[in-house]
Amino acid sequence: MPKGSGLTGRFDKTVQVWNSSTGETVLTYRGHGYDVWKVQWSPDGKYLASGSGDPGTPSTGGDIQVWDTNGKRIVTYTGHTDSGHSVEVTDIFWSPDSTSLESDFRKQLSYLRRQ
Q1: Is the dihedral of CA 65, 112, 99, 75 positive or negative?
Q2: Domain carrying residue 97
Q3: Is the pTM of this model over 0.90?
Q4: pLDDT by residue, tens only, the chain of 115 residues
Q5: Which of 37, 34, 91 is nearest to 61 (CA)?
């Protein structure tokens, strides 16, 4: 995580990075189709992953998006589903070397590897 910054997922489908000293929004990431339930910086501080989903609407499922610190989306992982219903991503775990992710949705784990 960049020094002095905070990170929040929001119900307006965005992720916000903010200055922890002033409370000002520094950067807003947009691109999710549903509320953002989980956000997590990579251990090396170069990326963030954000997870979204709608627990009550049938669809293709929740997603995880990986971003760089300038706001560029690197990759989107889709298809977090449970019996045809979309589910929210409830947790995201980075590998220590920041090259892969594991996500939790309704206590089911998915392993994802960045290209």
Answers
A1: negative
A2: 5-113
A3: no
A4: 566 778 888 788 899 998 888 989 999 999 888 888 889 999 998 999 998 876 655 555 678 899 998 888 888 877 665 554 456 777 888 989 988 888 776 544 444 455 4
A5: 34
